[in-house]
Automatic annotation (TrEMBL):
Major subcellular site: other
Domain called Thioredoxin: residue spans: 242-380
GO biological process: cytochrome complex assembly
Signal peptide bounds: 1-18
InterPro entries: AhpC/TSA, DUF4369, Thioredoxin-like_sf, Thioredoxin_domain, Thioredoxin_ResA/DsbE_sf
Subcellular location: Cell envelope
Record keywords: Cytochrome c-type biogenesis, Disulfide bond, Redox-active center, Signal
MF-aspect GO terms: antioxidant activity; oxidoreductase activity
Official protein name in the record: AhpC/TSA family protein
Amino acid sequence: MRNSCLLLALLGPAFAWAQQPRPAPASYPYHLRGQLGTLEAPAKVYLVRGEERLDSATLHHGRFELRGTTPQPVTATLVLEREGRLQNHFPYEQLIAGKLRRWYGESPDRLRLFLEPGPVVVTSADSVRKARVQGGPLTVDFQQHEAALKPLLDLHSKALSNMVQGGPRPDFKAHREAVAQLDRAFIKAHPTSWVSFEVLLQQPPLTPTTLTAPLYAALSPALRTSVAGQEYAQQLAKQQVTAIGAQAPDFQQSTPAGQPVNLRDYRGKYVLVDFWASWCKPCRAENPNVLKAYEAYKSRNFEVLSISLDEAREKWLQAIAEDHLPWLQVADLLGPQNEAAQRYNVTAIPQNFLIDPAGKIVASNLTGEDLVAQLAPYLK
């Protein structure tokens, strides 16, 4: 799994949707109750989604009950804190994209479930992790999806453990593709279920629209015309601007020396438009791969143009020097509000687009140690 940087990925679709008029808000009720042995205060349960705390309750004789509303039926995580205080239980990897639990696992006293009017009933002798969950049709759909996913997660978790102990690196690409194939099959088999919409929402941030648009189209009219469905449609429309085959949006930004650089200046060449930032660790880890590709193809009508999402000029320049990046670097120093990033609908970094000599986007998100090989078909 290739991580994306925290700031933009946390903004995720909301970052892009904020640029569009939003439909009227909706409200869906949820009801969650449970019995966790005979636990007493200060033990509490917390209902969280991402970094948002939705609700909480103190346990009395092991019992709790939570009621509330969400903009649409969604997954959430129930966390048991025996000492009462909610700990920082969101590791960096889990904050990145909401469903990276699929690759990194979860803490012992937490459990994902699907919120619905229900009630959704959680019962366990002690641990939330080991709880039995019963609910309505959405809970059934969610559990079916999770059960189908579990063998893939277990296999990948074992491979990660072996890697930590000195074994071979897991095939992250194959794992992602297997999970994506399972998700696609589930959505097509359950077009009317909010669980399918949630699975669609949780696709990795850089999934191309060639994969997500057909999944959205497979959803029922009721889901597509819901508030959340309309928002997702807006996002898809915006992503089409930078879809494979589209004319690359033009932009102009300045080098550290103040020299204006326009994307049109690269007509007649292949150019890898690369979005990054000095504070983005995955970006910095990717820079050696980009450098290797640049050295391999710079004599074959190929260039790299990097756009930084930095705000601090000094840190930007320091990172360029430390990573030994010889190609042109530009920025407007507006951070995530970088004009080029907004034109390209960049919601997570590192992210790149390969543009051909005619100015069309022919590939995107070409990254990793095999970047040279990925570019080879285009730079013969």
